[in-house]
Amino acid sequence: MVSKELPFTKSQIEEVVKTYPTPFHIYDEKAIRDNAEDMKHSFSVVQGFKEFFAVKALPNPYILKILAEHGFGADCSSLPELLLAEKAGITGENIMFSSNDTPAEEFKKARELGAIINLDDISHIEYLEKVAGLPDIVCFRYNPGPLKGGNELIGKPEEAKYGFTREQLFDGYVMLKQKGVKRFGLHTMVASNELNVDYFVETARILFEVIVEISQKVGINFEFVNLGGGIGIPYRPEQERIFFDDVAAGVKMAYDATIGKADIAQPNVYFECGRVITGPYGYLITEVRHMKHIYKDYVGTDACMANLMRPGIYGAYHHITVLGKENAPHDFKYDVTGSLCENNDKFAVDRMLPEIERGDLLVIHDTGAHGFAMGFNYNGKLRSAELLLRPDGSVKQIRRAETIDDYFSTLDFDGLGSFK
Ligand SMILES: *Cc1c(COP(=O)(O)O)cnc(C)c1O
């Protein structure tokens, strides 16, 4: 069980709404900072630990800057994400550039920033060399493919578009060595929203074994191994969270049993998590606009799938609290919807909640990662503001809401570009 307690009260949110109308996402700075420290502390037992926050999860420079203050780097996969990291003061080897199907100008920008470049394919070695030159340090993304005897935990990496095959890894490092590259990394990312600790320990073990083999056969020293992201969060109250201590202990054991015993260089251990870093510390606040009773009972909110698409596209559960009715009996069954002309625009289906009235404020939990970030403009819906709840209880707007002018700004049609 995890607590779904809120870091704010109804009256605090009623105050905020006077300045920043709903809907908006609000992020709990103190909780994000505490969690970052917790992760760092837990992983201090593994060799050279560092976390590169996956920018795509919450691409806001205010958040990147907060995380950088705790020693986190940034994991980027596009030019705008590289620019966000740069603006937040994260540069050089504090940036991991883990992209795929990458255009030349993105490799160029990554080189210019001195980022660690993680190549997704063997053909990108020559491509990178041609378009931007090879850097001192190069990392490859590994796709372990069909695992011997199958692996119940890891599933079917061979179905994923990412990474090098096992054979390509060996060939690729030989190529790099011949081209004079001296510093090497290895990366993989095969999980998403995974709550089983063993999964990460197993992935680490697979990578560590490959590192030992490549180090010996190719005769190179690995500087780091990047275990990717994918650590899950308990969206449902009845789920259990992953404790960083448990992942760290398992990874350390796997490291000691493989790399630790081999006569090779001892690489640092990196992660590039997004969801587990900020996910539980963001909330989408929305006001109930209409109640509708037909064959089912509907709560129509002023937010929609454009503000949070996970329930709509994955059927994902997001906990909902009705502010001020936390302790009321949950004896009404509702579908909580948005206003898109799209029937999967529902934040919850058949959810037991207290009796809801027009004007109630709803809190949709766990929107701090892959929430705002996945927004879109279908049906002419506008992206919301993002607010930061500061440790002193004050609220700072860290991104304003989109306006109709923003929506029309790419059009050059009879004055539409300047709607007022
Ligand atoms: C999405 C992604 C991450 C972050 O994933 P989370 O599930 O948010 O931890 C990290 N690395 C890569 C390459 C990704 O694509």
UniProtKB/TrEMBL annotation:
<dbReference type="InterPro" id="IPR002986">
    <property type="entry name" value="DAP_deCOOHase_LysA"/>
</dbReference>
<feature type="binding site">
    <location>
        <position position="310"/>
    </location>
    <ligand>
        <name>substrate</name>
    </ligand>
</feature>
<dbReference type="GO" id="GO:0030170">
    <property type="term" value="F:pyridoxal phosphate binding"/>
</dbReference>
<feature type="binding site">
    <location>
        <position position="342"/>
    </location>
    <ligand>
        <name>substrate</name>
    </ligand>
</feature>
<feature type="modified residue" description="N6-(pyridoxal phosphate)lysine">
    <location>
        <position position="56"/>
    </location>
</feature>
<feature type="binding site">
    <location>
        <begin position="272"/>
        <end position="275"/>
    </location>
    <ligand>
        <name>pyridoxal 5'-phosphate</name>
    </ligand>
</feature>
<dbReference type="InterPro" id="IPR022644">
    <property type="entry name" value="De-COase2_N"/>
</dbReference>
<dbReference type="InterPro" id="IPR000183">
    <property type="entry name" value="Orn/DAP/Arg_de-COase"/>
</dbReference>
<keyword id="KW-0210">Decarboxylase</keyword>
<dbReference type="InterPro" id="IPR029066">
    <property type="entry name" value="PLP-binding_barrel"/>
</dbReference>
<feature type="active site" description="Proton donor">
    <location>
        <position position="341"/>
    </location>
</feature>
<feature type="domain" description="Orn/DAP/Arg decarboxylase 2 N-terminal">
    <location>
        <begin position="31"/>
        <end position="278"/>
    </location>
</feature>
<dbReference type="InterPro" id="IPR022653">
    <property type="entry name" value="De-COase2_pyr-phos_BS"/>
</dbReference>
<dbReference type="Pfam" id="PF02784">
    <property type="entry name" value="Orn_Arg_deC_N"/>
</dbReference>
<feature type="binding site">
    <location>
        <position position="230"/>
    </location>
    <ligand>
        <name>pyridoxal 5'-phosphate</name>
    </ligand>
</feature>
<comment type="function">
    <text>Specifically catalyzes the decarboxylation of meso-diaminopimelate (meso-DAP) to L-lysine.</text>
</comment>
<feature type="binding site">
    <location>
        <position position="275"/>
    </location>
    <ligand>
        <name>substrate</name>
    </ligand>
</feature>
<keyword id="KW-0457">Lysine biosynthesis</keyword>
<keyword id="KW-0456">Lyase</keyword>
<dbReference type="GO" id="GO:0008836">
    <property type="term" value="F:diaminopimelate decarboxylase activity"/>
</dbReference>
<dbReference type="GO" id="GO:0009089">
    <property type="term" value="P:lysine biosynthetic process via diaminopimelate"/>
</dbReference>
<protein>
    <recommendedName>
        <fullName>Diaminopimelate decarboxylase</fullName>
        <ecNumber>4.1.1.20</ecNumber>
    </recommendedName>
</protein>
<feature type="binding site">
    <location>
        <position position="314"/>
    </location>
    <ligand>
        <name>substrate</name>
    </ligand>
</feature>
<keyword id="KW-0663">Pyridoxal phosphate</keyword>
<comment type="pathway">
    <text>Amino-acid biosynthesis; L-lysine biosynthesis via DAP pathway; L-lysine from DL-2,6-diaminopimelate: step 1/1.</text>
</comment>
<comment type="similarity">
    <text>Belongs to the Orn/Lys/Arg decarboxylase class-II family. LysA subfamily.</text>
</comment>
<dbReference type="InterPro" id="IPR009006">
    <property type="entry name" value="Ala_racemase/Decarboxylase_C"/>
</dbReference>
<keyword id="KW-0028">Amino-acid biosynthesis</keyword>
<comment type="subunit">
    <text>Homodimer.</text>
</comment>
